Amino acid sequence: MSSPTPPVVFYGFGFLHHGPRAAFHGLAAQLDQERVIDITPGFMRRLPAPWRAPVLWRWLRYNEVRLRTLYGKKTRRRIHYFFPENTMFRAADWKGPHTLSATCHQPIDAFRQREGEPFYRDLLRSLRACDAVVVQCSADADGYRAFLRGPRVEVIPLGVDASFFQPGDLAPGARPDRILTVGNWLRDYPTWADAVRRVHAQRPGAEFTVIANPDTLARARAALGACPAPVRWLTGISDQALREEYQRTRLLYLPLENAMANDALLEALASGLPIVATDLPATRDYVPDGAGTRVPKGDGEAGANAILHLLDDPATATAMGRSARGHALAFLDWPVIVQQYRALWRSLA
Q: Out of 21, 258, 260, 264, which could bridge 182 as a Cys pair, Cβ 3.0 to 4.6 Å?
């Protein structure tokens, strides 16, 4: 008689700037067969900004104790950490007979740079105790295999709610000259500012929008300096308002320092936007040929030229947007991604 399949416990949280359809919450919403433990601190918005990072750190460290009783049970479980870089402290000590897996979100280079920090030493020990580690970019898989030296490493992309983020009434080529940039982590705003100045010099009527946290907006403003280009600065907007921004813009411009996966990139794909993004292994994974243009890292001139080309060629912008939407539906929609996770968990049973 075969033993029952161990249940899956999905453990993690959502960052303050993530909407209810992104990252942890986007995947958790699909998990009607698994137990979800959500440790998102709902009070975080009420705290003064300088307190948020240290309070979040202590909150996440303390809340891992919610798994302690599960680890202590003799009945096996499959426990999966989402954002282990922020939530995995004691897994190596507590694992016991259970199956352990985790989804990493940092590029391997960023991970290596912090290897000597005390928390990262504990995280590395716990990741090496995992049975499987998920990375969200194929180019990082071999690096993680070599670095962790033991766990099975699988590639499962980040997902997007393509039923919510979808194209608006107008094709990108028929929209006003608006260029959208979204996000905080590993964004390259000095290069963004260089591209904005160049586009404004040739197309003064083009309008730019940046959606980010207040501290990121401050850095972007400083990088832009006295340039008179019209820029809308938005922060703390709802998912509905974010969707409208994607639907009313001509293209997404996303200059990056590095990346493994990127919510803004996926939301723009699902919204049917052509994309101009830094040429990185991750953007090659997520942006297929025909859905966007990849430009060299740190090259504001190349970014500006790609933007101007799409502003001047509505037919190409519309065709790229159509390709982007098709790719998101076929490969990145959350129902597609959740089946890949369930296949992984079945293989660990």
A: 264
Tell me what the mean pLDDT of segment 206-211 comes to. Answer: 98
Give the contacts of 270 (CB within 8 A, at least 6 positions apart): 160, 161, 162, 165, 166, 324, 325, 328, 329, 332, 333
CA distances 189 to 30, 228, 240, Å, are: 34, 16, 25
Q: Which two tokens stand for residue 47?
A: 């705290």
Of 282, 269, 249, 279, whose CA–CA distance to 320 is shortest? 269
pLDDT at 117 over 50: yes
The angle, 0 to 180 degrees and rounded to 10, between the axes of the packed helices 263-270 and 314-327 is 110
Q: Count of CB atoms within 10 A of residue 300's CB?
A: 20
Secondary structure, 3-state, the chain: CCCCCCCEEEEECCCCCCCCCCHHHHHHCCCCCCEEEECCCCCHHHCCHHHHHHHHHHHHHHHHHHHHHHHCCCCCCEEEEECHHHHCCCHHHHCCCCEEEEECCCCHHHHHHCCCCHHHHHHHHHHHCCCEEEECCHHHHHHHHHHHCCCEEEECCCCECCCCCCCCCCCHHHCCCEEEEECCCCECHHHHHHHHHHHHHHCCCCEEEEECCHHHHHHHHHHHCCCCCCEEEECCCCHHHHHHHHHCCCEEEECECCCCCCHHHHHHHHCCCCEEEECCHHHHHHCCCCCEEEECCCCHHHHHHHHHHHHHCHHHHHHHHHHHHHHHHHHHEHHHHHHHHHHHHHHCC
Phi then psi for residue 154, to 5 deg, are -115, 150
pLDDT in tens, 1-13: 455 788 999 999 9
Residue type, 36: V
What would the two tokens of residue 329 be?
């539906």
- Token code pair at residue 263: 């919510």
Sheet holding 132-135: strands in order across? 35-38, 8-12, 78-82, 99-103, 132-135, 152-155
pLDDT recorded at residue 1: 43
